[in-house]
Design brief:
The chain is mainly alpha-helical and 240 residues long. It is built from 9 helices and no strands.
């Protein structure tokens, strides 16, 4: 039971090792710069609204549970940061989708020596930028549809934040394995079934990605590293 989440989490570290390889580094630069820019905005936005959001959440706590505020405050604080960083992560992935697809393709060629089923050179793939971004927006709408009920549950002490964390970890895995899956002509529906078959490992990988997004400076690196790690995991665990 424990081995699967740990195995999933290890793919993010393997993604970091892959991102640092000479043949891969040049494909990391643009996604990295997009992530740095948007997360810088996200950090500023989080701190500007942090106090107001936390105070608003705690007002829903009944008076007779007021003594729990000291415990719930840090839980809600973490939840707010997860929510904001999750939102900015999704936006970053929409903008960087064409470049993340190229990065995932480069990782696959580095690992297997073979091109994916939908492999294009960089110039041709960039010509497909608009369709790829539109496809990413469809995926974003799917995420939002599931996020709404989980957001409503945030007002339930302890259980709400826990469910949101699990949901976020699940979505992070789908997000970062989708680039390799799409390159290999696997549909979004098929990918969700693949991820569902390896629930604990998927939660381990997505949870580590989510944790990385909450660590200052580390969060700048997470997107390209997660693309590399998600590609490795898909090729090794999901492809067949």
């Amino acid at each position: 039971m424990i081995a699967q989440p740990v195995n999933g989490a290890s793919y993010l570290f393997r993604g970091l090792k892959m991102a640092l390889q000479p043949k891969i580094r040049r494909f990391v630069f643009i996604p990295l710069m997009i992530n740095v820019l948007l997360f810088s905005v996200g950090i500023w936005y989080s701190f500007s609204l942090f106090g107001e959001l936390i105070d608003g959440m705690l007002t829903y706590l009944p008076d007779w549970l007021g003594w729990l505020s000291w415990l719930l405050w840090p839980i809600y604080a973490v939840t707010v940061f997860v929510l904001v960083f999750y939102l900015f992560s999704l936006i970053a992935n929409v903008i960087a989708a064409p470049f993340n697809g190229i990065l995932s393709e480069a990782v696959q060629q580095q690992l297997t020596g073979e091109k994916s089923a939908a492999a294009l050179d960089m110039k041709e793939m960039l010509k497909q930028a608009v369709p790829m971004i539109l496809e990413e927006l469809k995926k974003l709408l799917y995420f939002i549809g599931w996020a709404i009920p989980f957001l409503l549950l945030l007002f339930v002490p302890l259980i709400g934040p826990l469910l949101w964390a699990l949901f976020s970890a699940w979505m992070m895995t789908i997000e970062y394995t989708d680039y390799s899956a799409s390159n290999n002509r696997v549909t979004f529906k098929q990918l969700r079934l693949q991820v569902r078959q390896r629930k604990m490992m998927s939660l381990g990988f997505g949870g580590m990605v989510m944790l990385g997004n909450l660590i200052p400076l580390v969060n700048f690196l997470v997107m390209p590293v997660a693309v590399c790690g998600g590609t490795i995991m898909w090729l090794e665990k999901f492809k067949e």
